[in-house]
Amino acid sequence: MSDEIAFAGLVAAAALRYRPAGLGPYWFARGKLGGDPVFSAILRQGLIPDKARVIDLGCGQGVLLALLAAAQDPHQRQSWPSGLPPLPRDIVAHGVDLRADAIEAARIALGHGAHVAVSDIRDAKLTECDVVTILDVLHYLDFDAQRRLLERVYAALPSGGRLLLRAGDAAMGLRFRFTVVTDWLITLIRGRVQGRFWTRRGEEWLQLVRDVGFRAAVQPMCEGTPFANVLIVGHRP
Hints:
Layout: H1 3-16, H2 23-35, H3 37-44, E1 53-57, H4 63-70, H5 74-79, E2 92-97, H6 100-110, E3 115-118, E4 131-135, H7 143-156, E5 162-168, H8 174-189, H9 202-212, E6 215-220, E7 229-235
Parallel strand pairs: 1-2, 1-4, 2-3, 4-5
Antiparallel strand pairs: 5-7, 6-7
Helix pairs in contact: 1-2, 1-4
């Protein structure tokens, strides 16, 4: 089975978990997981190991956690291409987000497969974990709050623990402006007026993560989309 077909099957299984939550959450999960390259990259690059304790900060309706839950299905594991890292198994997942409606959809979709809660990521309790994901969220916090949160993440991770941070790259010109306008419109649709985003160039995000103490590298993460995103993978020494 090709990589694309195997991943599409996994996406379909993850999205199906949202049907009891309504068509809106279902179609959002299907579109987000299938169209955003970061989810495929996380699995194809083996960025989440077996038995990892995962905390997704700003998890929204929990689509990454639903993808990891779907990956526990023996049928999905059997269909996964042997040329890729195996799907991570026995994941212990937590997620937090400010939006109560998104967390409710996550609870319905995930059941006992993950623990999710309504919380501001700036104040969320960070128990010891192995992987922390922060996808398209950090630019909502001011610069000081960004650093404080990353310092807390660093403290929660053991040696060898991993940070997966996706953020917009302010060096990408028109693509970046489109990304910011899209984020502003999304927040407006959700009933919130976002007066400012605290953005950085890709190398500045990377330097911030390194300054906190991580060994880190950056890679483009916007293929197939009009957005200006990069993924920073940080390892705690």
